[in-house]
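Thread: quick sanity check before group meeting

JM: Hey all, I'm pulling together slides for Thursday and realized we never actually wrote out the predicted structure for the chain we discussed last week. Dropping the sequence here so it's in one place. If anyone has concerns about the input, flag it before I start.
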Amino acid sequence: MKMQSQPSFIIVDDEPDMCWALENLLRQEGFATQKAESGQEALRLIESRRFKVAFLDVKLPDIDGIELAHRIKSVDATIDIVIVSGYYYQEDEPVQEALKQGLICAFVAKPYFHSDIVDLLRSLCP
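JM (edit): ok, ran it. Output follows.
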């Protein structure tokens, strides 16, 4: 089956509508997805299985997305992390620092165009 051979993605966002939109977009592109509505839930999932990419919201109820990215990398250094945020902008210092450090591989501003996500998927999963 296509979905089993494709990389798996985790979506971490406390807004159910944002999870739903990104999850459906990824599934339309043939990718397997899992969602988490908190940082703790995401860490439990990442400790129990491998994901190719993590899409993280910056503002979660239990942890800042940049801090969560650090914790995720300590569990799985190979995972690609994409920040998806309506709070930060690409030019903001925490985002630029995370990009420079290699902590995150990309930033997507909310609201995003579907084509932005599809183009990003093509670059992360050629």
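AS: nice. The CA atoms of residues 5 and 72 lie 23 Å apart. The helical segments are 2-5, 16-28, 39-48, 65-75, 93-101, 114-124.
JM: adding both to the slides.
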